[in-house]
């Protein structure tokens, strides 16, 4: 047993060589060495989470050896009970926020997005395919089905039916004929997007990681790296029964006979990293930056749909997996939001994305939580706890802060930002988007791109100074500043008493709040209407910018 500077019992912090890498939080006087942070897991905690935390110098919680409250982070796959949230201590973090199944159950998600559509108009919320919740919406669905059939005449209309809760293929049916369908449980029936962007001739969707570090006030980060999941057989609307051609879940495709084969353009396996996908798009002159911007808007609008409804809970965060399908007009469609997105490591793309994702999530929590942790230490002085950061975590934390384009935002807590140059620099980082989306070009080349048997061009693609989304895609805030709303952000003025979230942690970048107005509208209650107005304004500007670029061309 050992004692920290406050005389608190810090079990397990033996003064051995092992304790050398551990530092105390900065507002403590130098003195005896503290214990490393402790993570708590259960049988469902992904292996990669444990191994990353161990690699960072954390200790694993040991029930037998340690006091029940002697842990700093509890990471598990299932949600926590409300009592666990209520009893969380200032030095502790939970990896789930209460109430988030409102997003992650497909029927709830559909209901909330429908409500937002009704409240704020269809154009903003047109990213979810037309959806019916069965069995309640059965009559509405049948009416729509026959209406469409009438309009399309001899052409088929395509629908997908999915269980409302975690399916992973169970019970997913794609159909164009309503005959023989029975809905004995809660299902959703949705318009099947039958013009997906194909790579080679394979359908894909994007797994975008999003971390909400708080709902009150709402704070959303997007991860700039992610996964692209491919179907392993060629897309073919004449055979709707072939799951390997229509579903992109890796859990399905890795058991297919074509998984190991070298497939046209996509190669072996069924996953790419997001950065590989974006660089592929750039090689076809697609405006990946604009696409990314649209994706971030989908994320914000989706989270906004439930944010006012989730209960307040301190010291927790939620890592979501957004499944987004891009169609051949480069429009992102939201398919699903995953609770505890899969963190198993199946292939090299998983290795390069998921390990760093966990590292960066830990950094993000520190970035958000340092102030709280200090509070925790003070509490610890009274009780029995203290919190320390490993050298690795302290080092990375400092690095993250200094790498921030708008580092000063973080320091609103203590001082007014005097030097505007850093802000200007942040604005400049975002290149003037020389070519907005090329829908026309895409349309004319679309068939080549989507249906071609050709491989991606071997000649050096014309990048025109474009940036790779991995690491280089600019925080949404800067994008907005540079493209649309240069005057609306004035980070030289403290926005409120020190609660400005950090802009970046590893590959996570802040996407909400994205300017002073949305920052204000998310404090002291969430003013959704005002935020929607800002997003709408942004979308309009984006649209006129695109038109402008089109006419210039
Ligand atoms: P889960 O991942 O829980 O099995 P999803 O809703 O993600 O369920 O659907 C599984 C797969 O089905 C997706 O990855 C996607 O490839 C395909 N899919 C789902 N909904 C649609 C849709 N509306 N249009 C086209 N494809 C879809």
From TrEMBL:
The UniProt record lists the keyword Thylakoid: no
Stored Gene3D superfamilies: ATP-grasp fold, B domain
GO molecular function terms attached to this record: ATP binding; ligase activity
InterPro entries per UniProt: TTL/TTLL_fam
PROSITE patterns, sorted: TTL (PS51221)
Keyword Electron transport belongs to the record: no
Top-level taxonomic group: Eukaryota
Keyword terms of this UniProt record: ATP-binding, Ligase, Nucleotide-binding
Stated name of the protein: Tubulin tyrosine ligase like 2
């Amino acid at each position: 047993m050992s004692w920290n500077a406050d005389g608190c019992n810090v079990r397990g912090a033996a003064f051995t060589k092992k304790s050398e890498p551990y530092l105390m939080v900065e507002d403590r006087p130098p003195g005896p060495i503290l214990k490393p942070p402790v993570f708590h897991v259960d049988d469902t905690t992904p292996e990669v989470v444990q191994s990353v935390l161990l690699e960072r110098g954390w200790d694993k919680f040991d029930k037998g050896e340690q006091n029940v409250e002697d842990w700093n982070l509890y990471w598990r796959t299932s949600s926590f009970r409300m009592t666990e949230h209520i009893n969380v201590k200032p030095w502790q973090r939970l990896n789930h926020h209460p109430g988030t199944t409102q997003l992650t159950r497909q029927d709830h998600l559909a209901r909330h997005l429908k409500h937002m559509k009704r409240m704020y108009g269809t154009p903003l919320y047109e990213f979810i395919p037309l959806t019916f919740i069965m069995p309640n919406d059965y009559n509405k669905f049948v009416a729509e089905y026959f209406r469409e059939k009438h309009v399309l005449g001899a052409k088929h209309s395509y629908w997908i039916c999915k269980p409302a809760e975690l399916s992973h293929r169970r019970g997913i049916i794609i159909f164009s004929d309503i005959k023989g369908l029975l809905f004995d449980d809660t299902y959703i029936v949705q318009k099947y997007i039958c013009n997906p962007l194909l790579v080679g001739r394979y359908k894909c969707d994007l797994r975008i990681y999003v971390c909400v570090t708080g709902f009150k006030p709402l704070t959303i980060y997007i991860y700039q790296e992610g996964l692209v999941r491919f179907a392993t057989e060629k897309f073919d609307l004449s055979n709707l029964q072939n799951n390997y051609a229509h579903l992109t879940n890796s859990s399905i495709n890795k058991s297919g006979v074509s998984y190991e084969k070298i497939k046209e353009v996509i190669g072996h396996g069924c996953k790419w990293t997001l950065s590989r996908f974006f660089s592929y798009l750039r090689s076809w002159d697609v405006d990946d930056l604009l696409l990314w911007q649209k994706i971030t808007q989908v994320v914000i609008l989706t989270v906004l749909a439930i944010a006012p409804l989730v209960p307040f809970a301190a010291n927790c965060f939620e890592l979501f997996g957004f499944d987004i399908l891009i169609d051949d007009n480069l429009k992102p469609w939201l398919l699903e939001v995953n609770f505890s997105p899969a963190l198993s490591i199946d292939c090299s793309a998983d290795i390069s994305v998921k390990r760093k994702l966990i590292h960066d999530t830990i950094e993000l929590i520190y970035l958000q939580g340092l102030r709280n942790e200090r509070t925790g230490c003070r509490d610890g002085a009274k009780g029995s706890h203290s919190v320390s950061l490993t050298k690795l975590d302290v080092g990375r934390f400092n690095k993250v802060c200094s790498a921030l384009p708008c580092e000063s935002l973080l320091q609103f807590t203590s001082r007014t930002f005097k030097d505007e140059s850093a802000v200007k620099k942040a604005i400049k980082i975002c290149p003037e988007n020389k070519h907005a989306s090329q829908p026309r070009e895409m349309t004319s080349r679309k068939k080549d791109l989507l249906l071609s048997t050709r491989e991606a061009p071997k000649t050096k693609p014309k990048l025109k100074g474009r940036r790779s989304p991995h690491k280089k895609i600019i925080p949404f805030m800067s994008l907005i500043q540079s493209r649309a709303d240069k005057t609306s952000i004035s980070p030289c003025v403290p926005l409120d008493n020190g609660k400005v979230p950090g802009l970046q942690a590893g590959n996570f970048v802040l996407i909400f709040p994205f300017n002073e107005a949305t920052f204000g509208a998310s404090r002291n209650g969430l003013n959704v209407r005002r935020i929607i107005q800002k997003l709408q304004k942004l979308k309009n500007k984006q649209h006129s910018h695109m038109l402008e670029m089109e006419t210039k061309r």
